[in-house]
Write a structure and sequence with these properties.
alpha+beta, 4 strands, 1 helix, 94 residues, 4-stranded antiparallel sheet
Length: 94
């Protein structure tokens, strides 16, 4: 992923995850970077960023998606992720 828009370093949340880009006429599997962050000084939102490896994806130009969340929205998302993580983990332990 040499043509990244996101800065990836030791502090990046997830620097290699499986992803799928889905469009009206295509579906492509790729690697991706996912990051949760906030500004270092005077943070006013939580930013959730996501970028697919565009070296193998042929339908989309290089781009990054970002959600800007309030603290309450970030906590709601985190709680839902925890709930689904528990559900998947419980199913794999059966």
């Amino acid at each position: 992923m040499t043509d990244r828009l996101m800065k990836v370093n030791a502090y990046t949340t997830l620097d290699l995850v499986d992803a799928v880009a889905t469009g009206r006429d295509f579906e492509t599997e790729a690697f991706a970077v996912a990051n949760a962050t906030s500004d270092k000084e005077n943070p006013d939102r939580v930013r959730l960023q996501f970028e697919l490896d565009n070296m193998t994806e042929e339908h989309l130009p290089a781009h990054m998606e970002a959600l800007e969340l309030t603290p309450d929205q970030a906590r709601t998302l985190a709680a839902d992720l925890e709930k689904h993580a528990d559900r998947v983990e419980d199913a794999s332990n059966e």
